[in-house]
Amino acid sequence: MTTAERTEPNRAAASGQAPAPLSVPAPRAGGCPFDPAPAVEQARREEPVTRATLWDGSSCWLVTRHEDVRAVLGDPRFSADATRPGFPFLTAGLRELVGRSSPSFIRMDDPSHARLRRMLTADFMVKKVEAMRPEVQRIADDLLDRMTDGRTSADLVPEFALPLPSLVICLLLGVPYEDHAFFQERSRILLSLRSTAEEVRVSQDELLGYLVRLAESKQRDPDVAIVSRLVARGELDFEEIASMGRLLLVAGHETTANMTALSILALLRNPAQLAKLRDDPTLIKGAVEELLRYLSIVHNGVSRVTTEDVTVGGRTIPAGEGVLCMINTANRDENAFPAADALDVGRDARRHVAFGFGVHQCLGQPLARIELQIALETLLRRLPGLRLDAAFEEIPFRHDMGVYGVHALPIAW
Question: Each residue of 326-375: pLDDT tens digit?
Fold first, then answer.
């Protein structure tokens, strides 16, 4: 990282501006754990495009309304390139990693982004993942068989919510599932807001090294999975393939796992909505969209940096300044979703931005939807007595992680 990049984030301090009063990640005290942080939600209501202070004292802009978030994420003048000066990093570890390895395509702009993303598009098309429903259902049933065998209680996270998407993404990538403890631990460190730069560096290097060796092994012994096919294309070196695999491996199990557990908890806390789903399972698809909107597990924003002066929500953001698009407050915007703070499984929530918006919206969203639909339908159908097995106040929410959710979810049936 250059000296300019290290000093650039503190532009507000250098210019004599007072630090922004709102900090990100914002304190959670005093609010419902399903809701956005109170200070960020207040900003959406009172000053929807506002300045905020990051962990290192640097400043960025928060964009909090649904309309404005879609505008930013759909505008190429807001760059996803993390090597640009002014790009807002949520932790020291993420900032220090810039330039240490091949970036994933989510940290690139077009045309480089589009070229790499196209290599994976066919693997995550709706028709392709719909064909996986029987296999995902089999995995869900097997996990539930083991979880309920001779027992009436369990922790849903390690026994169902986490292994379901982990098994599926390993199958797609050609990663041996017996190595899941290794990559889940590295993923945890990479996503933790408390990890030091050194911890992130070590975990990143270990995970990339593992994936490079995997790619090398696929050259000698190919199969039909994604990593092997990327090797066979011959367009990427092993380090680039490893970077792409890291993105899919980490995102492919952490996001869906946390949405699954958090969704079950939210339904248990909203028994009328849970009853609607039990009475009419055809609501499951729409309920998944509503849960994605209501819970929005990206709580600390999607990072961008301006390439020129841009006006958003009546505020002009100068070129070279960082922007965080607050997905969770956008999805709680009453102008887009009436009674937005209420969970309503019958709502048409398809305009949510839980998967982002524009050219960078989540590639794996068709797969995530299927996994969530199957996970929720299977749990509710097979466990009619499903209930929380701990006080709600004792549930350990992931306030310390880049992907929101719960660390554990004790349930009984």
Answer: 999 999 999 999 999 999 999 999 999 999 999 999 999 999 999 999 99
pLDDT value at residue 202: 92
DSSP state, 403?
S
pTM: 0.91
Count of all residues that appear for the chain in the document: 413
Rg (CA), the chain: 21
What would the mean pLDDT of 118-140 be, rounded to a whole number?
96
Domain count, the chain: 1
Helices and strands, counts by H and E, the chain: 18, 10
Tokens representing residue 223 in the block: 């199969």
Task: Say what the pLDDT of residue 102 is.
Answer: 67
Reported as type and span, the H/E element at residue 375 is helix 365-382
In angstroms, the first-to-last Cα distance of the chain is 52
Distance CA 68, CA 65 (A): 5
Q: Find the domain containing 266 and state its range.
A: 3-412
Q: What angle do CA 308, 312, 318 make, to 5 degrees?
A: 30
